[in-house]
Amino acid sequence: MSHDKWEDKNIEDMLSKVPKIHDQRSKEDVLNRLKEDGQLDDEPLSTNTQKDTSKKVKWMPIAVSIAAVLLLAIIIPSFMKENSSFDSAEESAHVENSESMDMEREMKSSESTAEDSSAGMTIFTSENGDNRTAVYPEELEGHTVFKLGLSSDAADSLPITVLIPNDTIQKDFGDVTPTGVELYNHYAPLFNESAIGFTDYHPYVGTISELGDQVIHTLPNDQIYDMASASLTTYFSSLVDTFSNSYEEVAIMDEEGSAFIFSEVGEPAAPIALNGETTQYNYYRYTQADGTSYLAPNNREAFTTIEDALLSMKEETNDIYQSVILPNVDYEVTVEGQTATVQFKEEVDLDVFEQAEAMQMIEGILLTAANFDMAVQFKNIVQTQWQGFDFSAPLPKPLGANEISFWTVFQ
């Protein structure tokens, strides 16, 4: 701190701390000392009155002078020490602040360099990564599969899969294993579709029941599913995505027990097959309006053979569903027994691609083959182990597409 920052209050506070000065000498000692110094040579000492007056006159200025000298001797070093301390503290703070700023600049420079270096990389590491979105058999332990077909922005159904903890199942159903319809009737009303960006579609209007391998959907006359042809397509596809895991077909009935007649169709609704050739779809990338990507059937186009389904995945037939096959990647398909072999024409290094996109290619092929009840063996891939997959053997068939966390949609 500089001297011009000192105010009266600071000086008063400092003076109050100055030690009190006491002179223990007697008047006679002081007088004798003054005589010895020649200070009283010119003063008359004839009378006691003159002596007393002389003492009073001469003593006061001298005492004040001595006190002032002593006071200055004490205050000046104190001021100098205090000022030196403040200046030292300011200098130290300035140095520390300067060092801190230098260190911060170095750290930012290092981070910027690291980001620039990362941005220039073309290799995507897969160590400890897992971009899988489908559900696989090894995940079933302690869980029960629950599927729904949600209404997408593309006026189609989008399949999702949730693994419900068995502890929750036991709490809700006791020791009885629930059927697919029982799972739907209990959990569909609780499913929070808006939590993942979808409009509310479930539970279905009317009642859902079952008879053997058949799901029965009883609709009221004021149902909402044939307001347009697109809404009817969404409804039919949603039934497939929701119940194909446990049943063979869905019968749509009116409240009198007869086959329902949709105004868009004009004739009694035939049972909807949940498995078989009509549901042998291949999978493409679909992106919702919010930017979230999923794997979904390409416009519900069905194929007779797995070869046709897998080979046609290289092509895009509309602007809603995008091919998941990576750029400049080609392959051939052969089938033996229940295994389809996908052999890439040139060696594929999955780590040079964006990892989520590479995973969508692998899982899109797996989900397509699963619709034919087949496993897939990949050949001519650089990696043997990659994000939970072992390419040295046929990969397990996925149980469902687009896994959604139970805790996200059931709160």
Strand content range: 15-25%
Give the overall shape, derived from the CA principal axes.
Answer: elongated
Number of strands: 15
* Average predicted confidence as pLDDT: 83
Give the helices and strands as they follow along the chain. Answer: HHHEEHHEEHEEEEHEEEHEEEEH
As a percent range, the share of helical residues equals: 25-40%
Uncertain ranges: 1-5, 43-59, 81-128
Radius of gyration (Å): 46 Å
Q: What strand line-up does the widest sheet have?
A: 3-4-5-6
Task: Pick out its properties.
single chain; 411 residues; alpha+beta; 4-stranded mixed β-sheet; 3-stranded mixed β-sheet; 9 helices; 15 strands; 20% strand; elongated; disordered N terminus
Structure notes:
- By secondary structure, this protein is α+β, with helices and mostly antiparallel strands.
- 36% of the residues lie in helices and 20% in strands.
- The chain is built from 9 helices and 15 strands.
- It has helices at residues 8-16, 27-36, 48-119, 166-173, 180-187, 229-243, 306-311, 355-370, 406-409; strands at 143-151, 157-165, 207-211, 214-218, 249-253, 272-273, 281-287, 293-302, 321-322, 331-336, 339-348, 375-381, 385-386, 389-390, 403-404.
- The strands form 5 sheets. A 4-stranded mixed beta sheet has the order 3-4-5-6, covered by helices on one side. It has a 3-stranded mixed beta sheet with strand order 1-2-15. The protein has a 3-stranded antiparallel beta sheet with strand order 8-7-9, with helices on one face.
- Helix 6 links the parallel strand 4 and strand 5.
- The chain is elongated, with a radius of gyration of 46 Å.
- The chain starts with 7 loop residues before the first helix and ends with a helix.
- The model is unreliable at 1-5, 43-59 and 81-128 (pLDDT under 50).
